[in-house]
Write a structure and sequence with these properties.
It is built from 9 helices and 18 strands. By secondary structure, it is of the alpha/beta class.
Length: 369
């Protein structure tokens, strides 16, 4: 290595890379370590739903973090395209959320945040046969999507353009007298460290005396290839969704399997569950080709909230972990918080995400997918 960077980022997923990009833009020298090619874990596997949000009107810390991120996504997508020439697939396509009577508090959150929604739908809305028995549907015109693999390619290229260095095949496993220790026995020194290692973060936090409970939650996805467009808007029903791409493909997700551990594999039961859900929601998918299936490991936390901030008992080790199924939609806000903290600033809502908080029951949030 040439010299120790100002910030060493451990993990090349969307949280680590977005943070690296913002830190480099602020004038920091940044090195990203990853045990494999960047962006190939949960960040690649997700469906890329971008819900609406207003950072001024959002009431809770997690909804403000989300709103601070998603409200900037159109501009950030344009910035990435202008800088790299890579289109990340961002599209303001609208969405439909299916809610039960017991979800009335979600409507209150939308109203308080000024999110546009209606039970009246534009015509034509979606393909024939759409419906979920016993649930009400609400149109969200400001819902969008991004294509995760495209976004990660653009983000990697943008990081390289602003001077971020990468060390691939570097498996960080612990600490040695304040320096990061790798599996090959070497160490890396830096002015500050950012742990953004997704589902694997706990093995770097626990040697520092910090055990927030980050754990893998497997999610499986089915990809359909359709001969014609069946619908154009994101469909969200609880923790499951359908995301239509402009090329005729449809993503169906996702299972939520904390019991799977670090086994990143599809299962017959998981795929069957998703296909049954998809065909019940959009019957036309019964005749569509299943092009591919895959699984990813989300970084879960005990209360569903991410941990963002200084690792207790350290002076220069920060973490941005536990984003669960919302890494894409929380990425920009998280990166800004981290950049502020490393610069010595104290962002609002920092206490809500501190690593030594006592996990409580997960708060109801405006969006779940």
């Amino acid at each position: 290595m040439n010299s120790s960077p100002d910030v060493l980022v451990i993990g090349g997923g969307i949280i680590g890379l977005t943070s690296a990009y913002q830190l480099a833009q602020a004038g920091r020298s940044v090195l990203v370590l990853d045990r494999q090619a960047p962006g190939m874990e949960a960040s690649w596997a997700g469906a890329g739903i971008i819900p609406p949000g207003d950072p001024v009107r959002a009431r809770t810390p997690i909804d403000r973090l989300r709103a601070n991120s998603v409200s900037r996504f159109p501009q950030f997508s344009a910035e990435l395209r202008e800088r790299t020439g890579i289109d990340n697939g961002f599209l303001l396509c609208g969405g439909i959320e299916f809610l039960a009577v017991t979800d009335a508090d979600v409507l209150s959150l939308w109203e308080s945040e000024g999110i546009r929604f209606s039970s009246q739908f534009p015509s034509p809305l979606v393909g024939e046969g759409l419906g979920v028995r016993g649930l009400s549907r609400y149109h969200l015109p400001d819902c969008g999507q991004v294509r995760n693999p495209w976004h990660m390619r653009a983000l990697i290229a943008a990081c390289q353009q602003v001077g971020v260095r990468f060390e691939i095949g570097a498996d960080a496993i612990g600490w040695d007298h304040g320096n990061l220790r790798l599996a090959d026995g070497t160490t890396r020194a830096a002015g500050a460290y950012l742990i953004a290692a997704g589902a694997w973060a706990e093995r770097l936090l626990s040697p520092l005396g910090c055990t927030p409970g980050i754990h893998p939650i497997r999610g499986q996805i089915v990809l359909y290839r359709c001969s014609q467009s069946l619908f154009t808007q994101v469909l969200m029903c609880g923790k499951r969704y359908l995301v239509p791409r402009t090329d005729g493909r449809v993503l169906v997700g996702s299972t939520e399997e904390p019991e799977a551990g670090f086994v990143k594999a599809n299962t017959p039961s998981g795929i069957a569950e998703l296909r049954a859900f998809a065909c019940d929601l959009v019957p036309g998918l019964a005749d569509a080709e299943v092009e591919k299936c895959w699984a990813g490991l989300r970084p879960g936390s005990p209360d569903g909230m991410p941990y963002i901030g200084l690792v207790p008992g350290t002076v220069n080790v920060f973490a941005a972990v536990g984003h669960s199924r919302a890494g894409v939609q929380l990425s920009l806000g998280t990166a800004t918080m981290i950049a502020d903290m490393i610069a010595g600033r104290q962002p609002a809502d920092r206490d809500a995400f501190r690593l030594d908080r006592t996990p409580e029951l997960a708060a109801k949030t405006a969006f779940r997918s």
